[in-house]
């Protein structure tokens, strides 16, 4: 019986699996075999390497396998840390190098998952278009899943992950690390406590993609596939097409078919706190306005450079800070360097962080925080009211995650071990992901979309086809 089978079997009989204390078996530094979590990393360079670093530095985690379509890029990610001036970053590089060198290596993650008997979980940090198929296959094999944001490429995929996670009962986590941060959890507590009064509006923004990856640009000319890149595997479920410079290793985020743009990337951090604090369900109406697509509008290469998406939520209850049953709320998203208007109640010299943030607009004033929920500030409608002082008196009601933002991956491991609850499991994260991607669906629709409570689009000729995609033969989603 491997460790995964052991944990799943004993968990059915007890709230926590039986583990022999380390000190009984071999002293303070000993790691019992039943404590060691074996992890595979799918997409081991770039962000995958960042996710793997804290795992590689944990005594009770073993990176047993890595899968990547470009191992040269993986080792560049390692070497970049080894060559850093900062001693701490070099130490990370050494741990990552040792972990990766001892891991079994695959080009095709499907082969890794087929030989997954020794694994307890997988980290998925591929481009967006591969997330869902990898996560579904892993959960089918009983593996815990840590999937980077956005959780999926389409709304339909998000719903499938929700269903699969519930059916299998495996530990899941989306890589929106701000959800584990102390500041973000404090924001949620303060909003829920009513310090701002009923929330009437929410605004959020990011500077992405400016300076990060290209959008609003036409396709580059086809070129030979770089040495070491398994392009057919890189395409995954995407349609057959030639390699084009600029997609790999990171520009894919702005390319249609591979990524879902700025809203999919940063919405997981910035839309998170309004959805969480206000317990928002599906929006009833979504509209996205934007600059021109990159290339032919009928078959664009890249997403627009800047967008403004407005979500309308109807029928909010008291748990969402509504003053009256049935109250509606508008949540507006800006990207590409666009910002919401500076609040009229702000003092002279007040500025919004151009990198990103959120404004909760309540009847009594505003709460403004930066990306990941950090640096919350208050503006009161009444100059004589000290909202910050009132917020300080709000009791702590949400559990704090060990390590905060930096402990998001470790929290997932602790959840696998039965020592913690996952911070952002698919039961929550997939719903957040769906709300984000409905904004992308509205952008593809070219008009406002009406969404029914059960998640259907009723006012567009394409209808629910806006919520899914076509899959290349051999890369269809598992049932």
UniProtKB/TrEMBL annotation:
Domain Gfo/Idh/MocA-like oxidoreductase N-terminal: start-end pairs: 38-175
GO molecular function: nucleotide binding
Domain Gfo/Idh/MocA-like oxidoreductase bacterial type C-terminal: 189-275
Gene3D superfamilies hit by this protein: Dihydrodipicolinate Reductase, domain 2 (3.30.360.10), NAD(P)-binding Rossmann-like Domain (3.40.50.720)
Name of the protein: Oxidoreductase
Organism: Rubrivirga marina
